[in-house]
Write a structure and sequence with these properties.
By secondary structure, this protein is of the alpha/beta class. The protein has two domains: 205 residues, Alpha-Beta Complex (Quinone Oxidoreductase, Chain A, domain 1), CATH 3.90.180; 138 residues, Rossmann fold, CATH 3.40.50. It contains eleven helices and 16 strands. The strands form three sheets. Strands 3, 5, 6, 7, 8, 15 and 16 form a seven-stranded mixed β-sheet that branches. A six-stranded parallel β-sheet has the order 11-10-9-12-13-14, with helices on both faces. A three-stranded antiparallel β-sheet has the order 2-1-4, with no helix packed on it. The structure holds NADPH dihydro-nicotinamide-adenine-dinucleotide phosphate and zinc ion (ZN).
Length: 351
């Protein structure tokens, strides 16, 4: 089969590979629509998870089931399915402990385009199909639904990690597609003031539509000074980090009030350490929690998040600035994510 792969650090291309095999609990799915992710960029061009050769890229897809294993109960060939980016082994002890995304070891629930071939192929393999797939609900567009693989669950997880509550002030640093879903997630959870940090005008406009009350352009000066200006110097209750770099934690700690939580979903692609400002962290006693997490996957979460689209609580179509039709456009879409033109939020490729 034809696939688009990471050939090595800094190198991608089209390759041929044998079709994946289907174990008793698995499904083989063909993609109906896919989207490249900023994580693919960290993986290939920053070598963030180390060397990989001829590994099929991509972990965001809606697909059609082609084959199922003998023990799969709830899915059959022809079903149109949502495929989460994270597909844990649900029988693992880590899943039993509530951290399915780390089933089998830290980050090991993230299999596509990490430990096994991803979705930029004519066919891809889904482990634990009954526990990881979800049916595409009637009335939800396939292109919009691709955002349920990763952007919606990750952005909303930022709001979960920060435990956003009614009326709280929330700072969302980074408003690419992930941060935009953190803005939307904070609004859905009842935040009061939502300050969004970014510079691309298309993202700024979307952030306002998703519920941002204030915008900070980090290119216009320090985030700390600008946010203090908007909060009478008091900072915010919660911070969600969905962009920036390792030093973004310095600003986040400075701006988080005692008792606050910093929820990070940003994938830190390089560097050895993250610095935390000692005095602003209360000399270690400030009750400022730092939480970071990989998005949770699995069927139940996919089914629930899909209801946000079905019942019009969340409109993911605002994210889709670039639409392609045809498998051969995967490369173009991926390179858009690498180059991040000013008018881009997220590309989608209809197969
Ligand atoms: P984008 O690159 O599209 O967005 C990044 C955002 O951060 C933009 O708004 C950008 O602003 C802003 N930014 C860049 N530099 C700075 C800075 N120095 N200070 C403040 N803001 C800055 O990324 P995505 O939304 O696609 O993804 C966000 C992150 O989430 C990525 O690292 C991705 O790998 C990760 N991720 C994590 C997952 C998880 O499970 N935890 C899953 C999926 C993705 P500008 O407007 O100027 O571009
Ligand atoms: Zn991703």
């Amino acid at each position: 089969m034809k696939c688009y792969a990471m050939l090595g650090i800094g190198k991608t291309g089209w390759i041929d590979k044998p079709e994946p095999e289907c174990g008793p609990l698995d499904a083989i799915v063909r993609p109906l629509a896919v989207s490249p992710c900023t994580s693919d960029i960290h993986t290939v061009w920053e070598g963030a998870i180390g060397e990989r050769s001829d590994m099929v890229l991509g972990h965001e897809a809606v697909g059609e089931v082609c084959r199922v294993g003998s023990l799969v109960r709830d899915f059959k060939p022809g079903d149109r399915v949502l495929v989460p980016a994270i597909t844990p082994d649900w029988g693992s002890v880590e899943a039993q402990a509530g951290y399915s995304m780390h089933s089998g070891g830290m980050l090991s629930g993230w299999k596509f385009s990490n430990f096994k071939d991803g979705v930029f192929a004519e066919y891809f393999h889904v482990n634990d199909a009954d526990a990881n797939l979800a049916l595409l609900p009637d009335g939800v567009e396939i292109a919009d639904a691709v955002m349920l693989s990763d952007m919606v669950p990750t952005g909303l997880h930022g709001a979960e990690l920060a435990d956003v509550r009614y009326g709280e002030s929330v700072l969302v640093i980074g408003i690419g597609p992930v941060g935009l879903m953190s803005v939307a997630g904070s609004a859905l959870r009842g935040a009061g003031q939502i300050i969004a940090v970014g510079s691309r005008p298309v993202c700024v406009e979307a952030a306002k539509k998703y519920g941002a009350t204030d915008i900070v352009n980090y290119r216009d000066g320090g985030i700390v000074e600008q946010v203090n200006g908007l909060t009478s110097g008091r900072g915010v209750d919660k911070v969600i980090i969905a962009g920036g770099d390792n030093d973004t934690f310095i600003d986040a700690v400075k701006l988080c009030r005692p008792g606050g939580i910093i929820g990070n979903v940003n994938y830190l692609g390089n560097g050895e350490f993250i610095r935390i400002p000692r005095a602003e962290w209360g000399c270690g006693m400030g009750h400022k929690t730092i939480a970071g997490g990989l998005m949770p996957g699995g069927r139940l979460r996919m089914e629930r998040l899909s209801k946000l689209l079905k019942y019009h609580r969340l409109d993911t179509s605002l994210l889709l600035t670039h639409r392609f039709t045809g498998f051969e456009h995967i490369e173009e879409a991926l390179l858009l994510m690498k180059d991040k033109p000013r008018d881009l939020i997220k590309p989608v490729v209809m197969i």
